[in-house]
Amino acid sequence: MIDKFLIQQQDFPIERDPGFFETIFALSNGHFGTRGSREEAAFSHELVDEGTFINGFYESELITYGETAFGYAKEHQTIQRVPNGKMQTLIYRDQVLGRDGEILEEERKLDLKKATYERTFIWLAAGVKVRIETRRMASFEDPHLLLIETKLTNLSQAAEPLQFKTCLGPEKTEADQVSDDPRKAQARGNLHYEKLSEHFPLLETQTNRSRLAVVVGKKTTVKDEATEKQLTFDEANQTYEETFSFSLKPEETKVCQSAIYYGDFAPVTAHQAVSPAEIEKQLNQALNRFDNGFEEQAAHMSRFWEASGIELTGDDQLAQGLNFNLFHLYQAAGRDGQTNIAAKGLTGDGYEGHFFWDTEMYMLPFFIYTQPEIARQLLKYRHTILPQARERARELSIEKGAWFAWRTINGHEASAYYPAGTAQVHINGDIAYATQLYYETTKDETFMKAYGLELLIETARFWTSFGFFDEQDAFHITGVTGPDEYTVLVNNNYYTNRMAKNNLEAAFQYADKYWQQDGYQALFDHLEVKEEELAAWKKAAVNMKLLYDPDLKLTLQDEAALERKPWDLTTIPKENFPLLLHYHPVIIYQHQVSKQADTILAEYLFPDTVSIEQQRRDYLYYEKITTHDSSLSRSIFGIMASRLGFQEKAYPYFNSTALMDLTDLQGNTKDGIHAANLGGTWLSMVYGFAGMTVKEDGIHFEPHLPEQWEKLAFSIQYRQERFKVTITQEDVTVEKINK
């Protein structure tokens, strides 16, 4: 029987890559994350990806181009690995756990209800048997804390002398390796470490070029007065080592508890915000109320599942995959208004730890409807990097408005390949769409006044500067790339133009609404907004070029969509997917082939603007040429299949979406979870199978429940009220919940 809230190693094929388990067992809380590696991994002969990351803590380096041009991105940004606080081992005479002996009866599990990683095993070394039980958690209540508990029980017949060693220091990693896979991190910085304390482990980590610093501290206690303790510092490896020596009687259990503090990063020159004494005080408090920390974590998760969980009855495996995805999505989100959600969350450094459009289009709806406070902070991050977006626009000859970076951490463009980076200007429309969705769902007037309206105005200004009117007054946007990265630098990409149209309409609507309202005139004056500018937005939106072939009755992805060479995807060997790893871009670009949902994504977002019959024709055409090489694709095709009555297609698409990481569908779960797909799972359930749409008179549901399912239930928050939606094969009920 499948436990819907428990992910266990024993349920997976034994041949799975160790990195796969390190990803799925990873823990994070939006501030920091640490992979699910074994505690003694640093003492083994094998290199293991133990990565611990702090959201937004990055190093930069100059991008080297063989041939460069004006306006190319100048610097890489790569999330950095901070000191590893998980390192610990057990020593019996000359035997070291991780290096010597055998591990027997190992069990590893991720408890989704408690947000804990737990492991139990027996270590057999030189005739001595010790049962070791560990549990760890990244605290949601105090996002700076990682707690680890280890219980040691002597299963031998005599008392044995043991040493428990716990460490804090840089992760043992391979040297930088250049990969042809653009999804992998390409560089890791040469970090500088400084010892800050003589009486407890406390390290400052500094980057060289980005000039950021962060402090990591650790305190450990072993509950026994007879324990001897020794603290040393290994200068060569920049690592603190703390050793506890004791004798363990037969069947006696020793409890070891560690609290690790991951601080807030800041510029090197301004970093000493929290003193070593204050950090030590916080760590001591965490140790003194250690069990309370785990209890508070469980209570926090209980509230999360009540507000954000989805109950699925009829397929336990899919329900487990759904819960896994929602859990990882929740723990990936930055909550401080200064950070966002990286493409791999905080489970790996794939895609360099960058923030993309994925947040706004795939992940934010989940937070907007179930955790609006977090959604607000994620959008606030976009406002914090608005100055960089304005700077980028001026650099690229855009007179007004903002041009947001395609991939970034610090707000500056980090994509070295502009055809699939800077040219994806639809990110402006994506940010505007998410801003509008948040406001219309929450009616958060303080957000709109402080952040939202400015985002809408500056993104709308971009379109009127970047696009142009032809002689017939049609508005064109040319030389851009849509979501489909296998088709680049095209004219009038349907998705881009549709998002721009919505952006312009929203900016006009809200600017017009607030034009005469108290408290907004200062913003309009500061931005120098004129009434004629509003009229220009409206004109561009009304006359936006949206391509359609009347003979084929087909919505066109771009002007050359039908001029490219057909490519029968069934003739391509399975091992040649994803195409980007096996074919030169020029070969891919000359074909009618799509990496992911593009036109179909636009029709998913704006279903009332295209007839159902047209959507069906478009769906069947684009499905044939889409490879789904991007993890962002299947959820959208599944949602549209549900809406359009293609139930035989919807269920397999959702199967792939819900189980993508647990089945390693993309073949690279070891590099980190697929964060956008996690959000796509929620979209599939709520927008797809539940058939939720939002109209002027409120929220509507038109369910498409698969015949295999008995019940689908979830909660949503809409304009300060929470509702419980329950869908069965016979009925739909919506119940108002008292918060």
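Second entry:
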Amino acid sequence: MTAIRGNRFHGGIPLQHSTLSPYRLLCSLVLVLLALSGGVAAAQEAPVLRIGVVDQVRGPVANGARLAIQQINDAGGVADFAGTLFQLELEVQPLTIGQPADTAITALREAGLIAIIGPADDQLAAETLPDLQQLGIPVLLPATGDTLIAANTTGNVFRVRAAEVWQGRALADFLINGFGLTRIATVRLDLDSLPGLVGFSSAAVALGVEPSPALVLETDTGVFELLEQLLLASPEALVAYGPPSAVAELYTVLRGSGWQGLFAYPDADHRLFINSIPFDLAPGVLAATTWPFSALDPASVSFLSDYVVAYGEVPDEAAAAGYDAVNLIAAALAQPGDLTANIARLDNVRGVQGLLRPAAFERGDTISDVSVVQLGQFGAPVVLTRYRDGERLPPDTPAEPEPPEIAPTATPEGVIVTVTSQRQNVRSGPGLVYPILGELLQGQQARVIATLPDRTWVVIDFAGMQGWMATYLLDVSGDLGTLPVVAPPPTPTPNVTPTPVLPQEADIVIDAVSINPQPAQPGPFTAIVTVRNAGNAPAGTFAIGATFPPNNIFASAVVGGLAPGQAVAVSLQASALNTGFYTASVVADINNQVPEGVVGESNNFFPVSYVIDMPLRSQGSQLLHLGDTIDLEDDAIQGDANWNADGGVSLDAIFGARLGILPGSDLNLIHWEVINPAIVNRDRITRGELVPGMLIGVITADGNRAVMRVEAVTDTELTVSYKTYIR
């Protein structure tokens, strides 16, 4: 076990070594010994409380916790309810997945710990949690697996990061309600990511969108098999789960194949993913995370700066969770009573990740804050929006919480008051005009230290402050006449909240994009973009633009300026050579010419889906009896296929036509280029192959391309629907 003490290594961060001459080294040692002779004696005066961390010695959870301990100790330590100051000390115990944990658990048990933080890995947490719970002290988990807290049988387990379900809800809401997408596909590349995928898919279904296709990489399939299905479906967005290297391969191949939809990956900010994709493919990838290092709120900026100075590296989500866990423990230590119960009653404790609110959750969750980010130009995550409890937060939601409301639980001596109602406010003075400091719950007691002359209000010691309570709401035990009489504090001046002044900024948004004509034929087409200034200041000249797949044609137009609330329709001229289903992202103010502020800069994107296809010559449906012929051009010149029983029931191509089985079952998802002569090259499809929902590609006797869908089939009848293209 590694013991890292805040007063031993400069508040917990080891100092770097330097090379000194023998003389200077001797002098330095003398000075250090003289300093330590007083420093050690001073440190011994403060009792020590030890917090265990299940992580590598230099792991992110240990680093985050160590930094928090250093800052607390440098500020004098943590004070309990009685005002006694304690120094905190870190005990780090590494554990490895799949290895016996007996020795490590024994070491933790014998270390005299008050709480344990970790592990952050879901699998390791699942393996060790039963043993950690039996230690009888709070266990604060940075792991996010949804099922972990379900095993909280002892009530002493707390999760200090937003669970995967909250991350899935945030991402689903952002794609569906934020972008208005309905064609969303998912892909899972390993077994471990199944819980995260389930969380996202469940949230999407609850919002009215069932992800389709929902693909899984099996042992006998590869990325390229998945690629074929994804390109055929052409979803507006794809949400991928799996190892960073495997997801990076899929993403790179997808972009190389011309797919232009939105791509989301929960671990998009993982360095392995970013380093495994081409540099120019990083911008635009979406992710949901419990904390991005690029967050701009004051707590995040301060933590990032302190962490980089201390360790020379950028912190991740686990480091932020370790940091928040220590501060949550410190907040609970400042209250009387059992530490586990105190943690459970904390509410609105400010953390780096957001608001820690154990009292708001059941079974041990402490936080639901999630950020949706997008990789920027050079690969760093840019915060687009934040969520709490699955709801999108306004951009100006403050990070500052209300003071935690904790009820004293110790049984005091002297004149005692007992709360008789379900809960009772403790105020800063004797009257409703005074601010509420907190509350006591029914049955809780406090010692009275003073009273008003008429004894209608009493004073208690509440978290180191004078707390006032009305006696008519309390059960008083003892003689109030024996207590000092005090005058009430001055009546507070009512706070007048000034009307917030909105910044004078333009906000360029795209309200709608339509493609004309739709579906468009290969060749030129027009995108009509409705762009509006949603801000409260005029916008000067700016440009809008988009890159339109499949041939990545860039189109742009200049808008001469917009007054607040003004909207105009702008045309983008593009072209396409290949048929298919595509999605482009239209961007407003592509050159960043208009100052829009943080909010305005994050809403300049608008996805638009469109179809490029050849014109239809005919479409319809037909019931074929044995011996019947179908003419897909409907020109009564010659047929293309015959349903017959010669040599066995089958569908036969006639007059030089060719047949082929196509993937999928939706006739509307077939476009001209899917009917490829390379795979539509058969002269017969037997009865045994035909099933309802099957798609059959046809090269007609006249050389046109067509597709039939089997609607029903028996040994004597075949019903098909079809469409035939002109080329």
